[in-house]
UniProtKB/TrEMBL annotation:
<dbReference type="GO" id="GO:0006543">
    <property type="term" value="P:L-glutamine catabolic process"/>
</dbReference>
<dbReference type="Pfam" id="PF04960">
    <property type="entry name" value="Glutaminase"/>
</dbReference>
<dbReference type="Pfam" id="PF01740">
    <property type="entry name" value="STAS"/>
</dbReference>
<comment type="subunit">
    <text>Homotetramer.</text>
</comment>
<keyword id="KW-0378">Hydrolase</keyword>
<feature type="binding site">
    <location>
        <position position="241"/>
    </location>
    <ligand>
        <name>substrate</name>
    </ligand>
</feature>
<keyword id="KW-0007">Acetylation</keyword>
<feature type="binding site">
    <location>
        <position position="165"/>
    </location>
    <ligand>
        <name>substrate</name>
    </ligand>
</feature>
<dbReference type="InterPro" id="IPR015868">
    <property type="entry name" value="Glutaminase"/>
</dbReference>
<protein>
    <recommendedName>
        <fullName>Glutaminase</fullName>
        <ecNumber>3.5.1.2</ecNumber>
    </recommendedName>
</protein>
<feature type="domain" description="STAS">
    <location>
        <begin position="315"/>
        <end position="399"/>
    </location>
</feature>
<dbReference type="InterPro" id="IPR002645">
    <property type="entry name" value="STAS_dom"/>
</dbReference>
<dbReference type="GO" id="GO:0004359">
    <property type="term" value="F:glutaminase activity"/>
</dbReference>
<dbReference type="InterPro" id="IPR036513">
    <property type="entry name" value="STAS_dom_sf"/>
</dbReference>
<feature type="binding site">
    <location>
        <position position="114"/>
    </location>
    <ligand>
        <name>substrate</name>
    </ligand>
</feature>
<dbReference type="GO" id="GO:0006537">
    <property type="term" value="P:glutamate biosynthetic process"/>
</dbReference>
<feature type="binding site">
    <location>
        <position position="64"/>
    </location>
    <ligand>
        <name>substrate</name>
    </ligand>
</feature>
């Protein structure tokens, strides 16, 4: 069956193969030496199944796709407050290599432009540039699930022609954003940009972001969910150079591109996409990569702002299970908005029952907000002289909270039996 998806990906890649617009990045001489025809597409599902099409094994340098990773590493290592003191989160509307800081805050506007990315490198705790690079490489490798290697030629080429980045480094030092030697920080930055990846590595990295920091193939937690949320946020607002607005409206996936020709795109909770094609548009984004992602998003409905029906689907059925006994059956993922609807519905119908039985045995996942709302429901009903029982065989709402165990049942029948006993015992009138 997996070949259905494979065939679809091969076909959509083939549809874009004839596009030859764009040009190789040539401000780093070594980048102008790659094969302009390379074209790879990889997709990783949230459980780590990989689809590959075309040149998915061709290695190229990660370049600016390193930026959200090092930003995530900085957040992971020193925390959001310390990172925010040195790097903003506002889109800049400027070119990626603009020699600028924010007029008011005097720090780089965001971590996706070179100024912010160079500042992020300087925030990684280490006792030497080599150690700092080793930590960075290890972190990226955790996302990719394999050890990434340095492209020495690109690194040397980038270092030899890096006047603009040097200007940025020294500017940052003058504003007090960079402590230490700018050249040492820049050297690590050139090395991180020169790590080699394939489109499959990018898809795996994307899937690790999609899974909130757990690499679905290795099962290893590389970083925490709050770090990922931050990194994805800046990818949404600033990830595609100054074409971020176009990208969000047309494609709608947190993403980052690099002048090496790669794009990583993430659909949180669902999948990671990696594309490779080194011909770039004037903003620095891969022409075929952008078009491919746009088609994938349109055809597969991947836009992250596609209005989901989840919360409406949460309440599957409500029915009467005896005189004054009503069952509310939920399913799917129970998040705040779904739980809020359940609570509102139970509240609206509270004159129709004496006992409400909430059946969560068909729920796959639940978040803390939904759990808090639902576990409060029983107490709220009791305060009105009614009862609220929960059919929660796996203990997803009520784990081991003393006092609440009494209202938790393994099956609807057990809850209905308890409700009948309660009703018939006349306890009702004593409430
Ligand atoms: N190493 C490149 C630079 O600093 C990265 C550029 C990019 O991919 O946007 O110029």
């Amino acid at each position: 069956m997996a070949e259905l998806v494979q065939r679809y990906l091969d076909q959509i890649r083939a549809e874009h193969a004839g596009v030859t617009d764009g040009a190789l990045a040539d401000y780093i001489p070594e980048l102008a030496a790659v094969d302009p025809n390379g074209f790879g597409l990889s997709l990783s599902s949230a459980d780590g199944f990989i689809y590959e099409s075309g040149d998915s094994a061709v290695e190229f340098t990660i370049q600016s796709i390193s930026k959200p990773l090092t930003y995530a590493l900085a957040l992971d290592q020193i925390g959001a407050e310390a990172v925010d003191a040195k790097i903003g989160v506002e889109p800049s509307g400027e070119a990626f290599n603009e020699i600028s800081v924010d007029h008011t805050t005097k720090i780089p506007k965001n971590p996706m432009i070179n100024a912010g990315a160079i500042a992020a490198v300087s925030l990684i705790p280490a006792s030497s540039p080599d150690e700092r690079f080793a930590v960075i490489r290890e972190f990226y490798s955790g996302f990719a699930g394999r050890q990434l290697e340095l492209d020495h030629d690109v690194y040397t080429s980038e270092k030899a022609t890096g006047s603009r980045n040097r200007a940025i480094g020294y500017m940052l030092q003058s504003f007090g954003v960079l402590d230490g030697d700018p050249d040492e920080v820049l050297d690590v930055y050139y090395r991180q940009c020169s790590l080699r990846v394939t489109s499959t590595d990018l898809a795996k990295m994307g899937a690790t972001f999609a899974r909130g920091g757990v690499n679905p193939q290795t099962g290893r937690r590389v970083t925490g969910a709050s770090v990922v949320k931050r990194a994805l946020s800046v990818m949404v607002t600033c990830g595609m150079y100054d074409a971020a607005g176009d990208w969000v409206s047309a494609v709608g996936l947190p993403a980052k591109s690099g002048v090496g020709g790669g794009i990583v795109a993430v659909l949180p909770g669902q999948l990671g996409i990696g594309t490779y094609s080194p011909l770039l548009d004037e903003k620095g984004n891969s022409v075929r990569g952008v078009r491919l992602c746009r088609s994938l998003s349109e055809q597969l409905g991947l836009h992250f702002l596609t209005v989901s029906r989840d919360s409406r689907a949460t309440l599957r059925a409500t029915y009467k299970a005896g005189e004054g006994i009503r069952v509310y059956e939920t399913h799917g993922d129970l998040l705040f908005s779904g739980a809020e609807q359940v609570v509102r519905r139970v509240d609206r119908e509270r004159n129709d029952f004496d006992v409400a039985i909430l059946d969560v045995s068909g729920v796959d996942d639940i978040d803390d907000a939904a759990r808090a709302l639902l576990s409060g429901m029983s107490a709220a009903l009791r305060a009105e002289g009614k009862e609220g029982y929960l059919v929660d065989p796996d203990g997803i709402v009520i784990r081991n909270e003393p006092g609440l165990e009494a209202v938790r049942y393994r099956a609807v029948d057990d809850a209905v039996a308890a409700a009948t006993t309660w009703r018939d015992s006349g306890l009702r009138s004593t409430h």
